[in-house]
């Protein structure tokens, strides 16, 4: 009697046949993350930029307090399940395209300035690209930024954000980028002529809700 239940379970499990999925699904199904960008997510005002960086950043327009800015945005980051490709879709309002200087994905938890891991400025003229407030593009491993300088970065960055000692644990693939997205430590940041240090608006990436 004692052997009856385990034997029954073993037979039932043995009757279940495993079924692997079509490998092609890895390129056509996605894990999706999204962010709603706003000035309120920036961890400081532009007027609080460290003095040593004020000249080098060279803001060319007067800044506006976060609560008074009308800029808003929504961004989607989609990873194919086989992690060979990722896709970015962005829509913005309340921003003059001519004022845009930089647009990045950074690695850092909410309220923390982290290093750039994807630099969209390397992929074309952002003012023209975002002229109509909408933009889409494809990412591969080649678009992941290798950070050489961590000056000014806070300690305690998440695992596989660029390491402060030796840079041995850097994010170098879309697979590691998606891992960081799952931890909630990636964020979009838009920089403009008036808001070059903290940024015009920021959006922390989280798993998209169905």
From TrEMBL:
Chain segments annotated as transmembrane: none
Domain CHRD: 65-205
Keywords (A to Z) from UniProt: Signal
Signal peptide span: 1-20
Region: Disordered, residue numbers: 40-75
Domain of life: Bacteria
Entry-linked InterPro entries: CHRD (IPR010895)
Protein name: CHRD domain-containing protein
Organism: Myxococcus stipitatus (strain DSM 14675 / JCM 12634 / Mx s8)
């Amino acid at each position: 009697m004692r052997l009856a239940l385990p034997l029954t379970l073993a037979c039932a499990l043995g009757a279940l046949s495993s079924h692997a999925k079509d490998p092609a699904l890895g390129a056509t199904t996605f894990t999706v993350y999204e962010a709603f960008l706003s000035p309120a997510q920036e961890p400081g005002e532009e007027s609080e930029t460290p003095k040593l960086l004020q000249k080098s950043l060279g803001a060319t327009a007067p800044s506006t307090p976060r609560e008074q800015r009308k800029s808003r945005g929504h961004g989607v980051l989609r990873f194919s399940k086989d992690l060979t490709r990722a896709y970015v879709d962005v829509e913005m309002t309340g921003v003059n395209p001519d004022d845009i200087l930089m647009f990045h994905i950074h690695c850092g938890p909410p309220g923390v300035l982290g290093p750039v891991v994807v630099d969209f400025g390397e992929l074309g003229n952002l003012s023209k690209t975002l002229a109509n407030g909408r933009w889409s593009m494809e990412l591969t491993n080649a678009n992941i930024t290798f950070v050489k300088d961590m000056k000014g970065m806070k300690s305690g960055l998440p695992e596989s954000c660029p390491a402060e000692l030796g840079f041995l644990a850097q994010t170098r693939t879309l697979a590691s980028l998606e891992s960081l997205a799952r931890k909630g430590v990636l964020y979009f940041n838009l920089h403009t002529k008036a808001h070059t240090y903290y940024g015009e608006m920021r959006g922390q990436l989280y798993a998209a809700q169905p």
